[in-house]
Amino acid sequence: MLNSLSKEDTEWNDILKKHGIIKDEPKKEEEVEPEPEPKEIKFNNSDEEEAWLEENDDDDFIRQYREKRLNEIQVAAQQARFGDVVEITASDYVMQVNRAGEGIWVVLLLYQQGHSLCKQMQNIFDELAPKFPATKFLKSIATLCVPNFPDSNLPAVFVYRDSQLIKQFIGPMIFGSEKITNEEVEWIIATSGAITTTMEEDPRRKMAQSRKFYEQFDSDSE
Asked: Quick one: 139 exposed, middle or buried, by C-beta within 10 A (0-12, 13-18, 19+)?
């Protein structure tokens, strides 16, 4: 009897719904519990990090965290392995350039003592090397590294990667005949891919515009 009434009641409700007298009740959406956000751990120093690791009892998380941190440390150490300008001769070339390591950028400056622009370039290299420690900066007296290298081609910069010559910048036509700035050398080397500069525009353009301005000023004052 109960089953029969229940069936009739259902059929009657269906008829009422069909003619729009009553409406279906909206189905309640199932509540979905939000997934927990990944843990983001930040520490002010290594002591805080070590204390947290000792107190935390989530073995899987600790293992993954340690592996991630170890990888970060190894990558950072690999990228910051240089930072100085190393003086080489021809006998050092194979070891320092050809065997520098996979994926390592090498920037070699050929210079000559007593050469004004070469002296400027050496000083600039001394500042660029610690700024870009992932790149290997080298220098060599030109005639010791390449016999009979002409002074007219100085200063000369060669860029290598995986023992292959990627780019060469030869002589004062590239670097200037009297003076060159750190920014200009950084930009020039960055065009080879050996370093990544934050500058957005070639600084030599501003220098050229400045020179034109003063040239015009001088001519007007005559």
From this structure: buried
